[in-house]
Amino acid sequence: MIDFTSPDARRAEMVGAVILILVVLSFTIWYMATHKAPEPFNPNPVAEPAAEAVPPQMLEEHGQYYDIEASYPGETPLKASAGVEADAAAVALMEDFIEGMARDFKRQGNFDNLTPEDIQMLGLSDTRKESLAISYEEVRSDATVSYAYIIHLDTLGAHPNTFYRTFTFNLATGEELKIEDLFVARSGYLARLSAIAEFELSKSLGEFANLEYIRQGVGEDPINFQSYVLDGDALVLIFPPYQVAPYAAGTQSVSIPLTQLAEILKPEYQ
């Protein structure tokens, strides 16, 4: 068929077609850039794996005449509240304590230099050994995290002995807190703790209650209250065997509600 359209009209039509193609192409590019393809349907989505908690760390050593088994945390809540460096410092502090206890135990036992006479006198054998066992408990308050280490030492005497070492850390700063750090300056906190502990122990010790013995163990000296934790809304004082009563009475503790100490505690620990 003969085309009767003029050349100018055909050129105009071609230009219009090109413009239309460019407009459609531009719209397509814009739409693809601003609209993501829909996610394929997954009826069983897999959650992102949570970071694994670091397990407790172990120090374990078995010699011919001794056994050591101890544990301490691999990480603490300080990692989330005060930062990675604060957490690492707290873990390192407790690790140093554990390793120091193990060194002292081996040095005092003199296991590398025992004579046949020593071995016979002590009755040592493959089945009769001296031992050091250290475990811990973690407790928290709103402002702190505490670790109470229970130390069982058996040197084959009349009976094993139990000791304690506690660490308490400020959750916001990572600072280790001694008992005096909880109280305002010149508050007379030692007199208050001493009076409360004496009163409570004289009741709880029952047949083992001896007022003179108790007073020696809870006198106004910071060393008498060095083993403590903040557990929830209470200050818990820990007294190992022999401190406030005979060995047979066992470990003693006194839990003091923080409300009872509110006027002498620093605001952050009330």
Explain this structure to me?
With about 270 residues, the chain is of the alpha+beta class. The chain has 2 domains: about 55-175, Heat Shock Protein 90; about 180-270, Heat-shock cognate protein, ATPase (Actin, Chain A, domain 4). The protein is built from 6 helices and 8 strands. The strands form 2 sheets. The protein has a 5-stranded mixed beta sheet with strand order 1-2-3-4-5, covered by helices on one side. A 3-stranded antiparallel beta sheet has the order 6-7-8, covered by helices on one side. The longest helix has 28 residues, at about 5-35. The model is unreliable at about 1-10 and about 35-45 (pLDDT under 50).
Distance between the termini: 101 Å
Average pLDDT confidence is 88
Domain count, please report it.
2
Looking at the structure, the CATH topology of the largest domain is Heat Shock Protein 90
Helix content: 25-40%
Please identify the top-level CATH class of the largest domain. Answer: Alpha Beta
- Can you list the strand order of the major beta sheet? 1-2-3-4-5
Annotated CATH homologous superfamily of the largest domain: Fervidobacterium nodosum Rt17-B1 like
Give the tags.
270 residues, alpha+beta, five-stranded mixed sheet, three-stranded antiparallel sheet, 6 helices, flat
Could you give the topology of this structure?
Layout: H1 7-34, E1 57-62, E2 66-72, H2 78-81, H3 84-109, H4 116-122, E3 130-140, E4 144-154, E5 161-170, H5 189-204, H6 211-217, E6 228-231, E7 234-239, E8 252-257
Parallel strand pairs: 2-3
Antiparallel strand pairs: 1-2, 3-4, 4-5, 6-7, 7-8
